[in-house]
Structures are given as structure tokens and as C-alpha cells.
Amino acid sequence: LNKHSDAPRMDRLVMGAGLVCANIVRPLCSGLAHLLHCTSAGSYIAWWSVDYISISIAILTTAFVYGHFAFYCSAQLQLLFLVSTVGLLSTSLMSVLAVASPTVRNAAFLLFVIFCHGVPFIYELTLKFGGGRVHESVPAAYLYYWVGSLGMFVFALLVKESNMPERAVQQPWNDVFFASHQIWHVLVNAAFVLSLIHISEPTRLGM
Q1: 162 near 175, Cβ under 8 Å?
Q2: Local structure of 101: helix, strand or coil
Q3: Cα gap 155→148, rounded to integer Å
Q4: In angstroms, rounded to a whole number, what is the distance separating the alpha carbons of residues 186 and 193?
Q5: Helix, strand, or coil here: 207?
Q6: For 178, how many CA atoms within 13 A lie in the half-sphere containing its CB?
Q7: What is the pLDDT of residues 40-66, one digit of tens each?
Q8: Is the pLDDT of residue 77 over 50?
């Protein structure tokens, strides 16, 4: 942010919120949840709720970053994206609280994540490859970072769901070191960092 101190104040505020929530608040809450959830039954519910909320806030604030810069020239589209994102997050949270089916809860959360990432990304791709003079303002490097971040999120999900490598190794040490859940967290943290690096490119922040 100091590098872009001459950028518009709103750009720096949106970017700062995304950086703090995704790369400081969320990892801190996740770490505390993993350490303290086993202290009591009440702590189990409380700390995993904190973890879930921190993840949701991280996705929401990074979505605000994506939407702010993707729809930079249209305040109406920014507002529409913001309201839609908050609405989907509310639906996801309500499904967690009121719906017993894990399938429904996971589907609601997945829809929220896909919307947050997918809509701005598709819009940027349209600007880049749709022709006309506007596409010149979307640098290729910006899209490469974004694709890398999305790919890392997908890879993290595949690792978590496949329970690899412990399913293949089946050794006692693998429950402590290099387990799929540990790899999942490393990849997710890296993906969040990568997702915000591309926004900090001089061609985007303060453009």
C-alpha cells in the first residue's frame, strides 16, 4: 500500500481490507480454532464457528476487491456485485444455521465462492478478449496471477477431498507431518496471497 500511496483512497481502503482479512485475520482465527476447539464442547462449537465466519469474511472482502477493480468504471455494477455477494453470503450462513443436510450447506457455500470469483473473472476475460479499446487496460500478467490463484484453490480442494498423501502412504508419521489437511491450509493461504498480488500490480491499483 505504501508503494501505491498516490492511489485513490477508496482503492487503498478496499485493498487493505482484503489483505488484512484474507491474510491476517483468517489465518489467525483458523490457527486458534485448530488449537482451542478441543478444550470443551462449547469451545468446539464456538471456535469452529469463528473459523467459518473468518473464512466467509475473507472471501467476502477479497470479492469486494475483485468487484471494485473489475467494475472500476461502473459504480452501478460495483453496487450490484456487492449486494449480490452479501446476499449469497447471507443465504450460505442461513443454510448452515437452519439446514441439517451437509449437501445443501456445501452447495450454498460453493455457490457463494464461485460467484465471488467467477463473475469478476469472466467479466475481465470479456474485456481482455472481447475486442475494442477497453481490452488494453487488462494486463495479461493480472489474469495469469488470477488463474494461478483459482488453480491453487481447486488443487487444495482436490487434496483435501482425496485425503492424499496419507491414503497412499499409510504411515503413522503422516498423521502428524505432510497430511492432506496441512497441505490444504498451506495451499489455501498461498492462493489467498496470490489472489491479491495481481491486484497490487501498478497497472491495476490506482489505474
Answers
A1: no
A2: coil
A3: 10
A4: 11
A5: coil
A6: 11
A7: 988 888 998 888 888 888 888 988 888
A8: yes
pTM: 0.78
41 by DSSP, 3-state: which?
helix
Residue with cell 495469469: 144
Contact present, 143 and 126 (Cβ < 8 Å)? no
Q: Rounded to an integer, what distance in angstroms lies between the CA atom of residue 65 and that of residue 2?
A: 17
Handedness of CA 95, 101, 105, 108 (dihedral sign): negative
Chain centroid to CA 42: 28
What's 4's DSSP letter?
G
Helix (H, G, I), strand (E, B) or coil at 165: coil
Whether the pLDDT of residue 32 is over 90: the answer is yes
Q: Are 191 and 152 in contact (CB under 8 A)?
A: yes
- Please tell me whether residue 1 adopts helix, strand or coil conformation: coil
Residues 67/120, Cβ–Cβ less than 8 Å = yes
The three-class DSSP label of residue 6 is coil
Q: Which residues contact 103 (CB under 8 A, 6 or more apart)?
A: none
